[in-house]
Design goal:
InterPro entries: DUF2582, WH-like_DNA-bd_sf. It is built from three helices and two strands; from the N terminus they run αααββ. By secondary structure, it is mainly alpha-helical. α1 crosses α2, α1 crosses α3 and α2 packs across α3. It is rod-shaped, with a radius of gyration of 28 Å.
């Protein structure tokens, strides 16, 4: 006859361990096509009209509620069309 061995297990803890997960935050990609860039140009133009003064790129992005990268795309479009100009390192309607 074989003997049964008694095994001891550690009592289960009722407290849960706090684990922290590092989640990589991915920046949304800026879609670059004529339609999207045109919409961003419209956002930039409307922000400049609403404020009625020269704005920096970060100010334009904040007012238009877009990223700075999107603001640069829109500003480039508007520069090409001659709708904006540079005034003391700020952008103003032409």
């Amino acid at each position: 006859m074989t003997e049964k061995k008694e095994t001891k297990t550690a009592p289960k803890s009722t407290a849960k361990k706090a684990t922290t997960k590092k989640v990589a935050v991915k920046k949304p990609a800026v879609v670059i096509n004529a339609e999207n860039v045109g919409f961003k140009a419209g956002d930039v133009y409307n922000a400049l009209v609403a404020e009625a003064k020269a704005l920096s790129v970060s100010e334009i992005a904040k007012v238009a509620k877009i990223t700075e990268e999107e603001a640069y795309l829109g500003i480039g479009w508007l520069f090409k069309e001659g709708k904006v100009k540079d005034e003391n390192s700020k952008i103003v309607l032409a």
